[in-house]
Structures are given as structure tokens and as C-alpha cells.
Amino acid sequence: MEMSEDDINTEEYPTEIHDYLAAFEKSLGSVDEMLKTMMSVSRSELLQKLEPLEQAKMDLVSVYALNSMFWVYLATQGINPKEHPVKQELERIRTYMNKVKEIADKKKASKLDKGAASRFVRNALWEPNAENEHTSKTPAKGKKRKMD
């Protein structure tokens, strides 16, 4: 039995959540399209095009998304996902995501041009020259106030 749009609109639910439900439906559509796109290419074909670090990122994001969807499923079934082993699994995946991020950050940091950095620091620091040294050591001339 198919429901028409009018039937859906006349269902009884709090009107204040209508925008949230519409946004959720739109998000589900986006997830569905993304999954169709990802599944249209074989995993091995996709991994061949990626560097090892990118492969790890893709695997972690895939596993995290799958576990997150299971979290939502549990919540829709009235099961508290915070008390389910999926919570520990998500934490474990996040730990690995942080490790991969650290590796990626180290890889980017190693590409630092040390010569350019030292020139930048040298030019940013003020170096007194002979004229500035003379004026900076001599107290400013002006009226002296007598202290009471």
C-alpha cells in the first residue's frame, strides 16, 4: 500500500519537528546517492588508485560510517547505543583516525622549507643597527618631573 504525500502530511506528529524530518530525509537521500556511487566501482579498483595513507583513510571512514548507521539503527529500535558494544567500536575507530591524522600531519610538516622559515624568522626579528643602538641607549630628552 503506497502512501500519498497528503497522507504523509496528515499523519500526526509534532509540527515543530517537520523541518528536522525533512532535513533527515534529504540527508538519507544524499547518503543513498553516495553509497550508490561508491558501490559502482569495485573496492580493489578504487584502492589501486589511492596511496596507502589514503587507503587507510577510506577504510576508516567506511567503517566509521557503517558503525554510525548501526548506532542510528539501534536508536530507532529503542536500544541505547551508548550501552552497546558499538560505542567502543566507534571509539576504537576514532583512535585509529587520529593516528592516521597524526601521520598525515607529520608528512605535511616534513615538507617545510627550512631555508624559507629561517629567512622569515630572521626578517621578522628586529635587529638594532648602529643608529638605533645610539638612540635607544640615550634616555629621551624632556622635562623631568619632581616626585613629591
Properties at a glance:
7 helices, 148 residues, mainly alpha
Structure in words:
It is a single chain. With 148 residues, the protein is mostly helical. It is built from seven helices and no strands. The longest helix has 25 residues, at 52-76. The radius of gyration is 31 Å and the shape is elongated. The termini are far apart.
Explain briefly what this protein structure is.
70% of the residues lie in helices and 0% in strands. It is mainly α.
Structural class: mainly alpha
Helix content bin:
55-70%
**Number of helices, counting only DSSP H or I runs of 4 residues or more:** 7
Distance between the termini: 97 Å
In terms of per-residue confidence, which ranges show pLDDT below 50 for 5 or more consecutive residues?
Answer: none
Q: Tell me, rounded to a whole number, the average pLDDT.
A: 80
Order of helices and strands: HHHHHHH
Basic shape = elongated
Radius of gyration: 31 Å
**Beta-strand content bin:** under 5%
Total beta strand runs:
0
Largest sheet: none
Topology, please?
Blueprint: H1 5-10, H2 18-39, H3 43-48, H4 52-76, H5 85-109, H6 114-124, H7 130-137
